[in-house]
Amino acid sequence: MYALERQQLIERILLDEGRVAVIELAQRFDVTTETIRRDLGALEDAGALVRVHGGAVARDADSIDEPTVLERTHRHGAAKQAIAARALSALGSGFRGSVFIDAGTTTATVADALSARSALASAGDEHIEVVTHSLTIAPVLAAAEGMSLTVIGGRIRGITAAAVGAETVGAIGRLRPDVAFVGANGISAGFGLSTPDPDEASVKAAIVRSARKVVVVADSSKHDRELLVTFAALSDIDILVTDAEPSPELAEALAEAGVEVWVA
Asked: Which of 72, 97, 195, 256 is most deeply buried (CB count within 10 A of its CB)?
């Protein structure tokens, strides 16, 4: 295979998955890792991608890039479903307590799975108090059996359909949920958890501070990314549920921070 053909295929993979890894590409194309690094270098020079530790991400994955919630809904669907199913095991069987579900498409998949689980539970086995500030997640939970729903209000940010602002942060600060399922746009060894928007970051930081246990749900396209605003250190979270092993650098940082990594 010529280098140009291989690079075109790498671009297609990147378009589908949002991220590529050097080792996986080398195995896929049966070439050396140095060959793949040269390919990624050429593609970066052409403006097709941005190289990161261990691989590359799409060019639009910069520090302020943020697709709409509708655009993100159909990305990494299988990974999100696997992550959601694994994440719910953090509640254990017969859970009776309070849960905060952050805004986002992966957390929305957690909400879907939680609603389905509640419908299958025997009457009285579980009762969950659920809180969210997401206008897209709230309808999924509103009619679910075995759950009570509280929706936090505030100014609605259109791109994420989530409440933000001082009112939202203040309301979250008066809560103490047993478990919070939180999304992130980026997770890195040096910068922690990050997101492109300061208002979203303030809300996520409030959720992390309020919860007794913090479960971060994020597919591997978020690994080693650093967006504009950090909202939590790795040491602030208890569990990371993802769909692939983190890079060695990130894995080491997570281990040092005492974070459990669950690969779905």
From this structure: 195
109 and 208 in a single domain? The answer is: yes
Tokens of 19: 């991220």
Domain contains 212: yes
Residues 93 and 148 in one domain: yes
* Opening angle at CA 67, ends 19 and 5, nearest 5: 35
Structure tokens at 86: 């694994």
- With 0.85 as the threshold, say if the pTM is over it: no
What's the distance, CA 217 to chain centroid? 4
Q: What distance in Å separates the CA atoms of residue 237 and residue 135, rounded to the nearest whole number?
A: 25
- Is there a contact between 39 and 52 (Cβ–Cβ < 8 Å)? no
d(C-alpha 10, C-alpha 258), whole Å: 35
Q: What is the pLDDT of residues 118-127, one digit of tens each?
A: 877 655 566 8
Give pLDDT tens digits for 2-55: 898 899 899 888 877 778 899 999 999 999 999 999 999 999 888 788 888 888
Is position 63 within any domain? no
64 falls within a domain: no
* Positive or negative torsion for Cα 171, 177, 183, 186: positive
Residues 6+ apart with CB under 8 A from 146: 118, 119, 121, 123, 125, 126, 127, 128
Whole-number Å distance between alpha carbons of 132 and 136 = 10
Place of tokens 């999100």: 80
58 pLDDT above the threshold of 70: yes
β-sheet bridge partners, residue 129: 98, 148
Domain that holds residue 34: 3-58
18 in the same domain as 142:
no
